[in-house]
Structure formats: structure tokens, C-alpha cells
TrEMBL record:
The protein's name: NEDD8-activating enzyme E1 catalytic subunit
Any one GO MF annotation of this record: NEDD8 activating enzyme activity
EC number: 6.2.1.64
Keyword vocabulary terms for this entry: ATP-binding, Ligase, Nucleotide-binding, Ubl conjugation pathway
Function: Catalytic subunit of the dimeric E1 enzyme, which activates NEDD8.
Pathway(s) served: Protein modification; protein neddylation
SUPFAM superfamilies xrefs: Activating enzymes of the ubiquitin-like proteins (SSF69572)
Family: Belongs to the ubiquitin-activating E1 family. UBA3 subfamily.
First-level EC class: ligase
InterPro entries: E2-binding, ThiF/MoeB/HesA, ThiF_NAD_FAD-bd, Ub_act_enz_dom_a_sf, Ubiquitin-activating_enz, UBQ-activ_enz_E1_Cys_AS
Active site: 202 (glycyl thioester intermediate)
Boundaries of every E2 binding domain copy: 334-413
Known catalytic reactions: ATP + [NEDD8 protein] + [E1 NEDD8-activating enzyme]-L-cysteine = AMP + diphosphate + [E1 NEDD8-activating enzyme]-S-[NEDD8 protein]-yl-L-cysteine
Length: 417
């Protein structure tokens, strides 16, 4: 019998008893009324109404959750229809969250799905505070990192919102339960995330040598002319835009070989999602939501599903990382060579497997030293750290996936490299 009881709106009692959670493996001894009551009072946020999001919405609605909210900034493209089954051909061009919500509301009586169109990073903190559980069905690491950091920050203010994160790639998938400040957060285990192939920022910005550098340049500048939206390899016009910009760039630097196929390859750089894997992973997330909503035990903490050679499902208990940049100390020390440039230093931060910074911006003494959005800081990439910061310095480093009030302190000590 479950011994974990939670309040209407808060999950605190779970956290207090979490160390004993392993004892509570038996079925809940709850009456149907109690279960119904639990499910009807939980307010759930689904982040993303794509392949995973559609499956998660279906699972939640059919399981008895009735207060469901979904956010997505994207519109429906024909290429989505092979897996995003809440949409039809007539929906092309409409917003995903609104169409998905309307479909589920029509289909499942008594369920209210409330759609939001927009970027998760633009939603106020007060909005996040109102949810009991967040399920992330996202297709990119950056948004997951941001969401994770935001929920960890809320937990610091005693607002505990569990995050269930699903991800899928071809025949592989993963699902995990993150209880902010109580279990390993997403960032604690960045080492499990395969780093994207990245090119040194200075190479892309000023010294491209191969065709892929030109495409990366186009991808990097894509959001500036598309309302902050990232380039989507599923959209023909996005790929065309990048192809044009990359070819222009290639011409400038006398580089040959930028064509449609290469551009698409660099943009996608991912294995396509399978509808069947999405549905497995989404179902796991929904099950975890059900257990959390009813105060039962939950999966600890990370599950990797590999469907390539028979089915192998492996749960792993993840440890919190005391040096985690989100829930840990958020400080690192680096030895810097006397000749080392800021560009080198930034590339080192980007290549660090546990940090996996994408496009870090650096602040020193309250001033922006490097920020890819501020062209006047670009010449600093070629300058040495010694000339910019002196022998000892503390830099403030942040990245797009980090919420505004969060940053990493980087202490540097310059010495003969
Ligand atoms: Zn962490």
C-alpha cells in the first residue's frame, strides 16, 4: 500500500519521504473515487505538441487527467503527419498546440486541454508555478536544459514540480523522472547526452574552411530573421533559406560543395523519429505522471529503451552531481595559457562534455566580453585572455538554455601554458 500522500497542489510530502520510496512498490490501495479525485485535481503541462506531445496528450486524456495544458510554438507541416496523429492534411499551417487541444477536447469527454502558442522561454515564471507536473516532449536539448533549470530554480523557492522528460531517436528512446533538487536534474547528467558536432565559434564566424562551416553559419543566423525560431529541417523553406545563405557565404570564401543535400544533412543531424518509439516513450511518461499524481512511487530516474536488437529496457538511478551548473555549485576553475585567446577559452567550454555549452556569452566586470548577438564583441575572440582579464579573474558565463538569473562562474588563472 502506498504510504506517500501529497497535498492538493504541492508535492512536498513526496520529497520528504523520497529516501524511503523504494519501500513503496506495492499497488495503491485507492478507491476509484480517490483516483478520480487525484487525477482531476492535477494540473499538467505538456511541453511540445509534436510526435511525443501528441502521444502524451492522448495518454493523459484517456487515463483520466482532465486539466491538461499544452504549449508549442510550431505550426503543422505536411511532413509531421506520419507520426503526429492529432493532425490532418487540412491542418497544415495551423498551430500545433491549438489543433491538438481541439482534437482531444472533441474526442475525450470531460477533458479540457488548454493550448498555448509560443516559446517556453517567453512564459513568465508565475505561469510555471501553477502546474503540478510537467511532461517534456521536446526535440532539442537546449529547450530541455532551459526547462530543467527553470524548474530547479522554482524548487529552490519551495515550489516542487516534477519534470518527466521523454526523448526518442529512431529505435531508441529515453524517459526520465526529475524531481528538482531531490533527484539528479537533466544537467547533472549531461554526460549521457551525445554532444552535437560543433565547430569552433571563431571558425564559423570568421574563418570558414569547409562547406559545413558555411551551413553552420546559416543555421546560427537563422533565428535573427525568423522571429527567434530555430531552423527546422522538416520545412523546405527553412532549408532553402539556409542553402542560399550558405552558398553566399561559400562564394565569399571560395569554398565549393554547398548543396541541398549537405545543407539538409547538417541541419537535421538527427535520426528521424519513429511513431512507434514515440508512443512507447510517451506511454512511459504518462505512467509516471499517473503514479506521481496518485502519490505512488516513481521510476528512478532514467530509463533507456533500445529497440534495435530485441527490446532492452534499462532503468538507471542517476546521481546528483555536486558540480552541476544548475542544481550544484555552478562554479569552475580553469588554467589558461598566456597566449590563449578568448575564442580558445570559449571553445574549451563548449567542448567540455559535462558543460556542453552551445553559444556561451561571457561577462566580465559587468560588461559583455563576448556575445554572438553583439557584433562589437566579436574582435575579442582573437584577443588573449591575459589582455582582456589580467592574471586572475572571475567570468560570468551564460547560455541561451540558462534562465536569466542563472549563470556559471568561471574562475581563470593565467599562467605559462
Ligand atoms: Zn543538476
Amino acid at each position: 500500500m502506498s504510504q506517500i500522500h501529497i497535498q492538493q497542489k504541492r508535492f512536498d510530502p513526496i520529497y520528504k519521504q523520497i529516501e524511503h520510496a523504494s519501500k513503496y512498490t506495492e499497488e495503491a490501495d485507492l478507491s476509484p473515487e480517490e483516483i478520480k479525485d487525484y487525477l482531476h485535481t492535477r494540473k499538467i503541462l505538456v511541453v511540445g505538441a509534436g510526435g511525443l506531445g501528441c502521444e502524451v496528450l492522448k495518454g493523459l486524456a484517456l487515463s483520466g487527467f482532465s486539466d491538461i495544458h499544452v504549449i508549442d510554438l510550431d505550426t503543422i507541416d505536411i511532413s509531421n503527419l506520419n507520426r503526429q496523429f492529432l493532425f490532418t492534411q487540412e491542418d497544415a499551417g495551423k498551430t500545433k498546440s491549438e489543433v491538438a487541444a481541439a482534437f482531444v477536447n472533441r474526442r475525450v469527454k470531460g477533458v479540457k486541454v488548454v493550448p498555448y502558442v509560443g516559446n517556453i522561454m517567453d512564459q513568465p515564471l508565475d505561469w510555471y508555478k501553477t502546474f503540478d507536473i510537467v511532461i517534456a516532449g521536446l526535440d532539442n536539448v537546449e529547450a530541455r536544459r532551459w526547462l530543467n533549470a527553470t524548474l530547479v530554480n522554482l524548487a529552490r523557492n519551495d515550489i516542487m514540480i516534477p519534470m518527466l522528460d521523454g526523448g526518442s531517436e529512431g529505435l531508441f528512446g529515453q524517459a526520465r523522472v526529475i524531481i528538482p533538487q531531490m533527484t539528479a536534474c537533466y544537467e547533472c547528467t549531461m554526460w549521457t547526452v551525445t554532444p552535437e558536432v560543433t565547430f569552433p565559434v571563431c571558425t564559423i564566424a570568421s574563418n570558414p574552411r569547409i562547406p559545413a562551416h558555411c551551413v553552420q553559419y546559416a543555421i546560427m543566423h537563422f533565428p535573427e530573421s525568423h522571429d527567434g525560431r530555430k531552423c527546422d529541417g522538416d520545412r523546405d523553406d527553412d532549408v532553402d533559406w539556409c542553402l542560399n545563405v550558405a552558398q553566399e557565404r561559400a562564394k565569399q570564401f571560395n569554398i565549393e560543395g554547398v548543396d541541398y543535400k549537405l545543407t539538409l544533412g547538417v541541419i537535421k543531424n538527427v535520426i528521424p523519429a519513429l511513431a512507434s518509439t514515440n508512443s512507447i516513450i510517451a506511454a512511459l511518461c504518462v505512467n509516471e505522471a499517473l503514479k506521481l499524481a496518485m502519490n505512488l512511487t516513481f521510476m528512478k530516474h532514467y530509463l533507456r529503451y533500445s529497440g534495435s536488437e530485441g527490446i532492452n529496457v534499462q532503468p538507471l538511478e542517476m546521481e546528483m552531481n555536486p558540480d552541476c551548473i544548475v542544481c550544484g555549485g555552478a562554479e569552475i576553475s580553469l588554467d589558461v595559457g598566456e597566449d590563449e585567446t578568448l575564442g580558445n577559452l570559449i571553445d574549451r567550454l563548449k567542448q567540455d562534455e559535462t558543460l556542453q555549452l552551445k553559444n556561451p556569452f561571457v561577462i566580465f566586470n559587468g560588461n559583455a566580453v563576448y556575445n554572438s548577438k553583439l557584433p562589437f564583441t566579436e574582435p575579442n575572440l582573437e584577443k588573449t585572455c591575459l589582455s582582456l582579464f589580467g592574471k586572475h579573474a572571475e567570468l560570468t558565463v551564460s547560455d541561451k538554455f540558462m534562465p536569466d538569473d542563472q549563470f556559471l562562474r568561471v574562475k581563470i588563472k593565467v599562467g605559462p601554458g
